[in-house]
Amino acid sequence: MTSLTPEILLRAYAVGLFPMAERRDDPTLYWIDPEKRGILPLDDFHVPRRLRRTVRRGEFEVCCNTAFADVIRACAAPGEGRDESWINDEIVSLYTTLNEMGRAHSVEAWKDGELVGGLYGVGLGAAFFGESMFSTVRDASKVALVHLVARLGKGGFELLDTQFVTDHLAQFGVVEIPRSGFRQILASALDRSASFPSEISQPELEAFLQSTTQTS
Questions:
Q1: pLDDT for 37-49, tens place per residue?
Q2: Separation CA 10–CA 25 (nearest Å)
Q3: Model confidence over 50-101: pLDDT tens digits?
Q4: Contacts by 181-184 with C-beta closer than 8 Å and gap 24+?
Q5: How far apart are CA 167 and CA 76, in angstroms?
Q6: For the chain, how big is the Rg over CA atoms in Å?
Q7: What share of the chain is helix, strand, coil (3-state, %, to 5)?
Q8: Nearest-CA neighbor of 119 among 165, 49, 167, 67?
Q9: How far apart are CA 105 and CA 109, in angstroms?
Q10: Are 116 and 140 in contact (CB under 8 A)?
Q11: SS3 sequence, 144-197?
């Protein structure tokens, strides 16, 4: 893959492709098109009981798009159980540019003025493509995910692509569908428009929590 631009990247997302590097220090990017795709149904989001209490207590200050570059770099950094990363310098640069274009967004969890968790992804039509998340404090990335889904619902999004299914994401209701099914859902979402809300009120957040499925 050479001369990848933000515009080419967006066209790739529109047909179901996304880029990854083999390693953090590998300059080469590869297009990924999984046979099975993970999606999180926005109308069937599961929130574990303990996490629900954490969100309601407001243990983290949650913001959007205030520290995008810091979030993506934190996602690329070594962490517990993750020595290597598929996020290289070119990905950091490309997605930071997409953020400046209003096409990529971050949700950040702060505690005592420190960025302790977050996630980022790409918005296109009414589809949001979740890319990666990180956490240095328990539940920080999970709280960011709850806020992301609440904002996507408020903004009119129809699809949250998680790319793959992991044990971490499965607890929230992520399902795996065939590539052909994903492309159909994606095409429908791309035909519609949505906006990414930077703010969500406490009453809106509470109403969202009440609408979700509670798990143990």
A1: 999 999 999 999 9
A2: 24
A3: 999 999 999 999 999 999 999 999 999 986 666 678 999 999 999 999 999 9
A4: 181/37, 182/16, 182/37, 182/39, 183/15, 183/16
A5: 20
A6: 16
A7: 40, 30, 35
A8: 67
A9: 14
A10: yes
A11: HHHHHHHHHHHHCCCEEEEECCCHHHHCCCCEEEEHHHHHHHHHHHHCCCCCCC
Place of tokens 């109403």: 207
Tokens of 58: 């407001």
Hunting for tokens 């400046």 — which residue is that? 100
Tens digits of per-residue pLDDT, 101-143? 999 999 999 999 999 999 999 999 999 999 999 999 999 999 9
Contact 151, 200 (CB under 8 A): yes
Beta strand 46-48 with 61-64 is: unpaired
Q: Enter the pTM of the model.
A: 0.95
Task: State whether residue 117 is helix, strand or coil.
Answer: strand
Tell the residue number behind the tokens 């806020």, with chain if given: 147
> Which single residue is written with the structure tokens 């998680």?
162
**Residue 1 pLDDT level (bands cut at 50, 70, 90):** very low
Q: Which two tokens stand for residue 185?
A: 């859902």
Assigned token pair, 172 = 């929230």
